[in-house]
Amino acid sequence: MILQRLMRRVLTSPPGRRPGLRAGAAGLVVLSFSAVLLAPPSAADTGDEKRAADAQVADLEEQLSETSAELAQAYTALTQTQAQLPAARARLASAQSAARAAAKHNAEVAAALAVAQANAARAEEAVARNTATRDQTQRTLDAFAADLFQGGSVGQLSVALGATSADDFATRLVLADTVTAMTNQALNDLAAAKADGDANGAYLAAVQVEVTDLKRQAENALAAAEASRNEAQAASSALDALVAQQSGYAASVEAQRANEASQLAEAQAEQQRLQALLIEQARIAREREAARKAAEAAAQKAAEEAARKNGTAVPPPPVAQPDQASGFLSRPITGGRTSSEFGMRFHPIFQVWRLHTGLDFANGCSSPVYAAAPGTIIRAGWAGGRGNQIVIDHGIRRGVDLATTYNHLTSFVQRSGTVSRGQLIGYTGTTGNSTGCHLHFETLEDGQFVNPRSWL
Question: Residue 446, Cβ neighbours under 10 Å: how many?
Answer without folding.
Answer: 19
